[in-house]
Amino acid sequence: MSKHILRFIGKGSYGQVYLAFDQKNQNTVVVKQHRERKDNNSKEILKGEAKTLSSLNDPSIPMCIDFFQEDQKWFLVMDYIDGSNVEDLILNSGQSYSEKESLQLFLQVIAVVKYLHENQLIHRDLRLPSIIFKKTKCL
Description:
By secondary structure, the protein is α+β, with helices and mostly antiparallel strands. Helix content is 29%, strand content 31%.
């Protein structure tokens, strides 16, 4: 793997997520590794996520860069969107939002949800940690 892991970001029910540096392309990426569990089919879920991301084209949604297997483990490589998730901003950084700012954030999220629905997709994990807030955009 030509990705150098920089740090662990977090884990979910079917994957572990890392910030990495892609030595081949000289950029920062996100690498999600499937996490095998008895009660789920994490490889197939990750494969579906890679396929879905590959079919989308929206600047608020990370692009799928690669999907591969190495040492019996599967990896999904995605664009890195530089920002903080809304949960961290509120709970850890003490960020507060005015009614107007909250409405603007909500409208940005709804625009992405609308785009997904137009592509016959449902997000299924739409919560504050899944929304990355950048200077002018969120996902």
